[in-house]
Amino acid sequence: MNKDQVKGVAEKTKGKVNEAVGKATDDPAQELKGDLQQEAGQTRKDMGDVKEAAKDVAKDKR
């Protein structure tokens, strides 16, 4: 697991918390912030997944 994967999962978790707090407090702005954080976190995690896959392919070709 690389740093992009870890940071992506952490960002997704923060987003889920913000979304839940926004729903509980009826704050659409905080809900939206949570949704955006989750998307950004998923994107970063996906980027980390691609890096890991590329590293594995490079290792297999040796």
UniProtKB/TrEMBL annotation:
Domain annotation CsbD-like: ranges: 4-56
InterPro entries listed in its UniProt record: CsbD, YjbJ_sf
Upper classification of the organism: Bacteria, Pseudomonadati, Pseudomonadota, Betaproteobacteria, Burkholderiales
Entry's family note: Belongs to the UPF0337 (CsbD) family.
Listed Basic and acidic residues bias regions: 1-17, 24-62
Pfam family, one: CsbD
Name of protein: CsbD family protein
Domain of life of the source: Bacteria
Region described as Disordered: spans on this chain: 1-62
Organism whose genome encodes this protein: Paraburkholderia translucens
